[in-house]
Amino acid sequence: MDTFPQLLLHNAKTRPERAAVREKCRGIWQTVTWRALADEVRVLAAGLSAAGVQRGDHVGLLGENRPRLFAAMAAVQWLGGVVVPLFADTTAAEIAGPIQSAKIGVVFAENQEQVDKLLAAMPLCPTIRHIIYDDDIGMRHYRQSHVQAYDALLAQGRDGMAQVAAKLDAELARGSAQDPAALFFTSGTTGPARGVVHAHGALIDRARAAVAIDSLTEEDASVAYLPPAWIAQHMFAYALPMVAGSCVCCPESSETMLNDMREMGPTVFLAPPRVLEALLTQVSIRINNTGGFKRNLYDHYMALAQRVGPQTLAGESVDLSDSLAYSLGNALMYGPLRDVMGMGRLRVAYSAGEATGPDLLLFYRAMGINLKQLYGSTETGLFVTAQSKGQVKPGAVGAAAPGVELAFGPEREVLVRSPGLFLGYHDDVQGTQRATNADGWFHTGDAGWLDEDGQLHIVDRVQDVGALKDGTLFAPKVVENKLKFSPYINEVVAFGNGRDHVCVFVDIDAEAVGNWADKQGLTYTGFADLTTLDAVYGLIGEVIATANAAMAQDPQLAHAQIHRFLLLQKRLEPDDGELTRMRKVRRDVVSSRFASLVQALYDGSPMGHVDAEVRYADGSVGTISADIKIRDAKTFAVQTRKKAA
Questions:
Q1: Half-sphere exposure of 365 (CA within 13 A, CB side)
Q2: C-alpha span between 5 and 79 (Å, rounded)
Q3: SS3 content of the chain, % helix, strand, coil (to 5)
């Protein structure tokens, strides 16, 4: 069981009738068993062989999580091919880069939208010779010879099975742990996206480590709703189920996600912080829309949960009165909230992708959700550190996972040595050598430190960590997370390196702030108008003042309080290049595009002006020109700790 197809056949033999994948389609849940999945993969591999796919070929995957996407991955790997998951929301121009880099010849496309995107990109991508689509809606009049239905490829595989059966068996047996399995393109937060090549053995090793840490079994079920091109989703939707024999569930759409979550009842859940923040915002909006009694009940029990919930979840002893009160709160408040969010059956939830604010982590743990942080990167196979039961610390990302070694380089850069490390960057030997030294240590680019319990704390990206003029450490992510816990704030970009003080751009949450504005009787015509209201500036000013008050109590953050802020009149968007496809801020892009606003924040101006290019939903490009208000934030005197007598 060194490769994923070998694991697939093992599951088909040992648990043939257990669910491998469940998908909600047209309102009905449909189940694919391990036996059925293995049978389909073998036939699909035969069809791909007839289409010319050979060992070492790169095959693209363009679409959302679907059973046939997982089948396609296993079929490609059966033949010794390398799967290349691509972000489904990219434009035709964006997708050309990865296809050119990997020299992709065959692409599995989910539907007409993705097929059209590939056809538009083909003049730039001459290597594409075959497009295989799943959903046939709208595809009736497509007559291109290189565009083929998934079902037609399966039929080809069945018809030619007798001729290739021996070859399939030989390729399956030939597969080894050292074979390349997948090529993932990094999100490009700090520079151009790079192709990261992983072997079967590395991904399987990290999946086995995760199974051991949290005792995952075939009884577990996870949900696949994040981009398949993100390695974390690949691990939880493909690698972990293959290793544990568990089931992965695919919701019908992003719009039905919450309802589908309640129906599927996952026991394992993965979410980047932005998803957890969005769920918290939805909860806050619902509570704000309820009557006074329910709101007071929520406030009372959430205050109790913040105080005793994490200890209760960790199995620590609490006062009998608090224990009884928390049990009552679980029946009246926490349990129903978990059910609303589809988390009623969760055994464990993970946050990954970037640092999770301590307040956000504590909120979910206070509600009885066993949320833990994972730390890793595309190059490290995700599972570098893990938080074990009873060892969850806000602000820490856990101790080294099984098989992982940690060290620190200059500027406290975290170095990693692990069986889960990548094979290298695709067609970039020099880049690989710069990232991994001769002793096998990978340079993560993250600054961090180990505490007395051996738990790793990540400060920020090394290139983003700096200092104010007075020498105070400035890590923008720490400041930003203080604000992003608020349901009224969608994104924050903090500035301060080499400056006298910290200033921030705020991208408000349109739904939460709009709901608040409606209750205040405020009138506005849209998002941009909403961000100009003095009352909204006052609302965000209160959020910043609360964060500043908390930072004033922390000796490490007291001098990094926010002094000035503005509200952006446009959302930060991936299509405009300001965010990655995983919705991480591209600081260099934001700083460059809004340089005039940064200057206005620091020269004392009451207003800033910006002219910025934006891309609309139809693909057209326009320019926004706006004058933006700038406001001073309330700051607090630094609290000094008195020495003991």
A1: 28
A2: 9
A3: 40, 20, 35
CATH of domain 4-256: 3.40.50.12780
DSSP letter for each residue of 478-533: HHHHHHHTSTTEEEEEEE-TTSSSEEEEEEE-HHHHHHHHHHTT---SSHHHHTT-
- For 8, residues 6+ apart whose C-beta sits below 8 A from its C-beta are 34, 37, 38, 41, 74, 242
**Domain 271-420+427-459 architecture:** 3-Layer(aba) Sandwich (3.40)
Q: What is the mean pLDDT of residues 58-71?
A: 96
CATH 3.30.300.30 domain position(s) in the chain: 466-632
Question: Dihedrals φ, ψ of 341, to 5°?
Answer: -85, 5
CATH superfamily ID and name for 466-632: ANL, C-terminal domain (3.30.300.30)
The pLDDT of residue 645? 38
Residue 228: left if φ>0, alpha if ψ -120 to 50, beta else—which one?
A: alpha
Cα dihedral 575→580→583→584 (10° resolution): -140
* Pair of tokens at residue 190: 């700090």
Considering the chain, tell me which residue range(s) the CATH 3.40.50.12780 domain(s) occupy.
4-256, 271-420+427-459
pLDDT digits (tens, 9 = 90+) for 432-451: 999 999 899 999 999 999 99
Selection from 133, 165, 152, 177 nearest residue 5 by Cα: 177
Residue ranges of alpha helices (H) inside 55-121 are: 67-78, 92-102, 112-121
